[in-house]
Amino acid sequence: MIERYTLPRMGKIWEDQNRFQRMLDVEITACEAFAKKKLMPGSALSEIKKRARFDVNRIKEIEKETKHDVIAFIKSISENVGPDAKYIHMGLTSSDVLDTGLSLQMRDAADIIIDDLKRFLIALERKAKKYKNTPCVGRTHGVHAEPMTFGLKFALIYAETQRNIERMKAARAAVSVGKLSGAVGTFANVDPWVEEYVCKRLKLEPAPVATQVIQRDRHAQFLSTIAIIGGTLEKFATEVRALQRTEVLEAEEPFTEGQKGSSAMPHKRNPVICERIAGLARVLRGNALASMENISLWHERDISHSSVERVILPDSCILIDYMLNLATDVAMHMAVYPERMIENLDRMKGLVFSQRVLLALIGKGVTRNEAYDLVQRCAMRVWKENVGFSAALADDIEVTKYLAQEEIEACFDLGYYTKNVDRIYKRLGL
Hints:
CATH class of the largest domain: Mainly Alpha
Largest sheet: 2 strands, antiparallel
Distance between the termini: 26 Å
Structural class: mainly alpha
CATH topology of the largest domain: Fumarase C, Chain A, domain 2
Low-confidence stretches: 1-6
Radius of gyration: 30 Å
Strand content: under 5%
Oligomer: single chain
Helix content: 55-70%
Shape: elongated
CATH superfamily of the largest domain: Fumarase/aspartase (Central domain)
CATH architecture of the largest domain: Up-down Bundle
Strand order of the largest sheet: 1-2
C-alpha cells in the first residue's frame, strides 16, 4: 500500500528551504557571470560564495516588515555576507530570480514524475503480459459487447502511460528555461551574456524573449500535462472500481490484513484507493484551469499569477506523485478473478457472439439489413425468454435456411476474438 512511500523527494522540492536555495543558486551563479565580465572583483565573488547563506525564519521575520519575499531573502543573505553583498542581485529584478528558481523546481519535479510513470509502466506491463490470453467480456455503455482479453485492459493504459511519459518530457523541456533580462525583459541593466552563462551553468535554456516574467503558457503546459496524467490514472481507477462491483467482481484493488470497509457492514470491501485517485484527478484539472488563467497578465507583468502558483504548483506535483504511487500499488497487488470472467462471459447466454453470426449470414449472401433483423430477432428471444442464443438461432427457420448447425456452433469460438492479440501487443513492444 501507499503507506510504504513517504514521498519525501517531491515534498522537499516545494519546501521553503529548497525554494530559497534555488534562488540563491541563481544569485551566486549570476555573481560568477558578473565577475567574469569584470563587473565585480574576484575577491567579492569568493566572499559571497563563502558567506552567502540564509535562514528561512529570518526571511519570514524580515518579510513581515517589507511585505516582499525577495527583498527579505536578499536582506537575510546580505546580513551574512557583509559589504560585498552590494554585488548580489545587481541589475536583476525579483522575477529573474523567482522564475528561474521556479524553473529549477519544476524541472526537478518533472524528473520525479517521469520516474513514477516508468514504475507505473512496469507494473502495467507485468499485468498485461500475465493476462494477455485471459478471456473476458468487453463492455460498451456498461453493457456486454464482445469477448476480449483482460490483458488488453492493461495494455491500453500501458500505451497511454507511454504517451504521458513523452508529454511530461516535453513539459519538462518547456519549463526548463531561465530569465535574467531585467524589469521588462530588455536587458537594460544586465548583459544578455549573463543570462546565457547562468542558464548554461544551471542546465536551463534562456527564454528567447520575456517580459518581467517567464511566460506562463509554459507553466500551463506543465500543469495541463499533470492533469492529463491524472486523467489516465482516473481512467485506470474507474475501470478497477467498475470491475469490483458485486455484480461484476472480476478484479479488486488490494485489501490488506486488518483493513475495514464499513463501520456498519463488516462484509464490505470498497474500492477506496481508486475512488481517492478519481477524486484527486478533479483537483488536478481544476489546477490546470487556474494555470491557464495565469497566461494573460497586464502588459509586461502583474502579480495575479504568483499567489495562484504558490498553491497549484506544489499541490499538483505532490498530488500526482502520490496518485502515481497509489496506482502503481493497485496495479501490482490487485486481485484478479479469471473464473468470474468466464461466468460473466456466459451470463448473456451467448449474445456476445451476435456479430459473428451476423457476418456469417452476410457471408452466405444475405443482405446486411436482413441479416441484422434475423440475428436481432433471435437475440430478443434470449432477452425475453431466457433461452440460449445458439438454441434460438437453431430454432429459427430463416437462420437455418442459411447456416447449418455446425456453422452456428462455429460462431461461438472465443479464439476468433483473440486471434489478433499478439499483433496488438507487438505494436506496443510487449
